[in-house]
Amino acid sequence: MIILKRPEEIEKIKKSNIIVADILSALKEKIRPGVTTLELNRHAEELANKKGAKPAFKGYRGYPFALCTSVNSEVVHGMPSNRVLRSGDIISLDFGAYYQGYYGDAAITVPVGDIEEKARLLLETTEQSLQDGILQARAGDRLGNISAAVQSRVEAAGFSVVRDFVGHGIGKSLHEEPQVPNYGVSGRGVELKSGMVLAIEPMVNAGTYKVRVLSDGWTVVTEDGQLSAHFEHTVAITDEGPVILSLRN
Known about the structure:
globular
């Protein structure tokens, strides 16, 4: 069942998402060679606590950390550790917050020092595909419009979209209906309605779209070992068009 949110609920979801946006912005400033992913996790949790929010991922289905840190060929759900970031790496930071009864969720992928041109193009394409998808999040259109827009941008650049993991609705629960694939056909899928709130999150691989889960039960990696990038925003569909909730104005 898809839950439509009232305007006052969307405002509460926005508060959670602004916390997420602020924390991701702070984490981005800490990205440099020599930093460990566990340090980033500690900082994210400390910032959430200071803001009176609960890290949404910690304890969710048994996940033990506040932050997901996916490096290079890791797609999503990378677990923080003593791994040291090195120049040339790319790292996805995925963070969620629970605040006053509602969830926020967003992700960015950040270069560590100097990165290769292909990696830079991967990041730029993935972020642009997210913006393309958001522009299609309009009442009266179909969910497939979002998916097709993401896929079109990604494949035109020679990259591939992950099939096994998708975006989702969000609100009082971290994951709600509908699922939001990053591939599809325009004009198909559920009708988009004002009051829907969606976490749109392209996961884009430099090579094959195929992925596998490591033995830790969480970390998703590309099957061919090539790079992957991930960007995510929480977006409200309104009568006036899409509104990005996880972006400080």
